[in-house]
């Protein structure tokens, strides 16, 4: 219970102060003039001014509040190294028991630093702030953190804490810990496909002298180089970028003796491969209604550099037209099909037949170009069934279907085969799910017998319509109809010609998204999605490896024709790996090289500036490896600037309280005020009458 005096003036404040000034002047004159009753008159004036101020006696019933201390227990991945977790739990139990003996202290314990798939690094002060969110600063006694010292959200100054109380750090681990890590100095984010990119790194050893390290550089899980380096030296390595999309490069150093963990012996660089320009050679033969379909599609793609030739005038044609009146240019066959053929990613023959323009030897070059990694697409018409067919050239060795010399002339709906329903080129074509498919009819099909590859689209009587094949390192596609232009022109509602032709050309140019057999990992927020694309009826189990090295086996669920999928929670940051024994996939969740694993040796240096500024301390639980944990005593301190000693740490005990009741007694209200004022006037008159 506390007592006090409060004022509630009956008039504005300036009137009270003016009255006090006038009363003071009058009282001074009375005293200087030594008039009789000067003191009594002064008392009367003071009581009048005091009455205007309306003072009241107050009484407050207060209930004391406990001081609040927070113990933050680091549960980050680095606390799992060595005996750190056991040390922290032992200290936690001892401190909880000792703090419970302090009268008027409330202990709050919070665990923080667990990997959540979103935050990078160990964040303990965010958890501390959340634990004290409902506690006024004047009740905070301090904080004790059980951690390995690698905290990544330490405030720059004590003002950011939001309270004035000591912070103590009790550090697990022991002095002299050894560890090796790979540090990236510079790494590109993008690279041109087919070119090399430079990565600069160094190997750092902590707690160990400089020494040699064996380094393995791999890309997408495949080793591309090994070399021996000296720790501390900067090393530059050239990495080729073979494909578009993510190219994940790993730099892994050999371990050292007695190091804490090999997890940070590896650094990861994700380089997005970007194609410079896709060079496509389009050779059109006999003019027909759909001749511009391929040209319009390829010219609309800004990433495609198109070279287009139309064979309008075969060499044997002799019609007497003067040479100086011909506006056509000669077909540069030698330049295109011998000197520069390897500069093209795709060669398209659109209704092309042998007309003596290309010598037979050049078809040999094209076949060799495909086997070495190139791509050829044949969009066939009746020419493919004729005596001048491309089949009757050295291209026969790479073409996936043999014509029988007949052409079917009837209306039909192009349909997907069972393989086509699973193949990424045709699987999700709009309208394919209807029966018949919801697109316009075609009216011509070259009869052929599929001899290799996959038939993904069919015509009437199960005849092959679109056949895809692999030949050596390259790819071949054969479209056995020249009526796809009906879809482009919107006949009977048209069809998905853009999607089909674009996917077809990109599959030929080895776009990773269109691979028939692929294992993929996707990071979507706090989820990792494992997806298997396959032409088989089932998908094998997948082994998923977390950044910490923990593994689990996943049984994938069917999601769509040819697609199997499974989602799990991404509870760790870093590089995740998936493998089904044949294929491997990798994906980064968060940054490629999490700070949690960049530096893992325990230290007091990170926390010491803040703990010292608050009057606390950062000290180790173990003085040396193999020693017993030394948990300091906890002392309740009422008033001090320092809250630490050789064997103790202190908490700042507070005198906070909450008001439960208030009593107010006005001094000049009612009979009491009247008696004071009348009494003072009566004394004045009585003194004057003597």
TrEMBL record:
Annotated organism of origin: Rhodoplanes elegans
Alphabetically list the UniProt keywords. Answer: Membrane, Transmembrane, Transmembrane helix
Does this entry carry the keyword Membrane? Answer: yes
Q: Which Gene3D superfamilies match?
A: 3.40.50.880
The name on file for this protein is: Glutamine amidotransferase domain-containing protein
Q: Which domain of life is it from?
A: Bacteria
Which residues are listed as membrane-spanning?
14-32, 39-57, 664-686
Against InterPro entries, the record matches this protein to:
Class_I_gatase-like (IPR029062)
């Amino acid at each position: 219970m506390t007592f006090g005096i409060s004022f509630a003036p009956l008039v504005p404040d300036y009137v009270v102060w003016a009255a006090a000034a006038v009363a003071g002047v009058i009282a001074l004159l009375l005293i200087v003039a030594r008039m009789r009753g000067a003191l009594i008159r002064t008392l009367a004036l003071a009581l009048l001014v005091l009455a205007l101020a309306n003072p009241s006696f107050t009484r407050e019933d207060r209930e004391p509040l406990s001081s609040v201390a927070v113990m933050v227990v680091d549960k980050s991945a680095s606390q799992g190294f060595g005996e750190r977790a056991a040390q922290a739990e032992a200290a936690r139990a001892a401190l909880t028991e000792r703090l419970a003996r302090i009268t008027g202290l409330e202990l709050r314990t919070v665990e923080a630093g667990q990997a959540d798939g979103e935050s990078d690094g160990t964040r303990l002060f965010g958890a501390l702030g959340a634990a004290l969110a409902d506690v006024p600063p004047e009740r905070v006694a301090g904080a004790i953190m059980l951690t390995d010292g690698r905290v990544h959200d330490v405030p720059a100054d004590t003002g950011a804490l939001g309270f004035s109380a000591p912070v103590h750090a009790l550090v697990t681990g022991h002095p002299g810990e050894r560890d090796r890590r790979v540090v990236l100095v510079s790494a590109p984010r993008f690279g041109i496909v087919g070119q090399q990119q430079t990565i600069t790194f160094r190997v750092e050893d902590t707690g160990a002298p400089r020494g040699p390290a064996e380094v393995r550089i791999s890309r997408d899980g495949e080793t591309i180089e090994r070399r021996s380096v000296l720790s501390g030296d900067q090393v530059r390595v050239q990495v080729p970028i073979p494909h578009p999309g993510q190219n994940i490069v790993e730099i892994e150093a050999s371990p050292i003796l007695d190091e804490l963990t090999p997890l940070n012996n590896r650094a990861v660089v994700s380089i997005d491969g970007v194609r410079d320009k896709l060079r496509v050679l389009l050779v059109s033969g006999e003019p027909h209604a759909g001749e511009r379909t391929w040209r319009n599609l390829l010219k609309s793609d800004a990433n495609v550099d198109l070279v287009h030739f139309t064979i309008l005038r075969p060499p044997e044609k002799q019609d007497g037209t003067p040479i100086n009146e011909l506006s056509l240019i000669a077909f540069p066959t030698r330049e295109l099909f011998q000197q520069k053929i390897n500069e093209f990613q795709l060669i398209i023959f659109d209704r092309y037949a042998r007309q003596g323009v290309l010598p037979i030897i050049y078809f040999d070059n094209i076949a060799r170009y495909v086997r070495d990694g190139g791509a050829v697409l044949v969009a066939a018409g009746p020419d493919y069934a004729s005596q001048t067919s491309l089949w009757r050239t050295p291209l026969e060795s790479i073409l996936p279907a043999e014509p029988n010399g007949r052409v079917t002339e009837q209306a039909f709906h192009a349909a997907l085969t069972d393989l086509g329903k699973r193949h990424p080129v045709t699987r999700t074509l709009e309208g394919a799910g209807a029966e018949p498919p919801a697109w316009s009819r075609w009216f011509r099909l070259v009869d052929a017998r599929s001899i290799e590859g996959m038939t993904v689209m069919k015509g009437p009587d199960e005849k092959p319509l679109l056949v895809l094949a692999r030949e050596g390192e390259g790819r071949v596609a054969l479209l056995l109809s020249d009526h796809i232009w009906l879809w482009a022109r919107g006949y009977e509602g048209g069809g998905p010609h853009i999607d089909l032709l674009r996917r077809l050309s990109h599959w030929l140019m080895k776009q990773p998204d269109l691979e028939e057999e692929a294992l993929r990992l996707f990071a979507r927020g706090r989820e990792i999605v494992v997806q298997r694309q396959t032409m088989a009826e089932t998908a094998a189990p997948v082994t998923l490896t977390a950044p910490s090295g923990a593994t689990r086996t996943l049984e994938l669920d069917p999601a769509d024709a040819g697609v199997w999928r499974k989602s799990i929670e991404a509870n760790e940051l870093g590089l995740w790996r998936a493998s089904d024994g044949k294929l491997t996939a990798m994906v980064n969740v968060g940054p490629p090289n999490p700070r949690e694993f960049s530096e893992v040796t325990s230290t007091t240096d990170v926390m010491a500036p803040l703990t010292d500024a608050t009057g606390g301390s950062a000290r180790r639980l173990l003085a040396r490896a193999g020693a017993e944990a030394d948990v300091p005593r906890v002392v309740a301190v009422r008033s001090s600037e320092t809250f630490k000693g050789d064997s103790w740490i202190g908490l700042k005990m507070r005198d906070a309280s909450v008001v439960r009741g208030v009593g107010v007694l006005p001094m000049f209200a009612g009979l009491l005020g009247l008696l004071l004022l009348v009494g003072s006037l009566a004394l004045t008159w009585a003194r004057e009458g003597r």
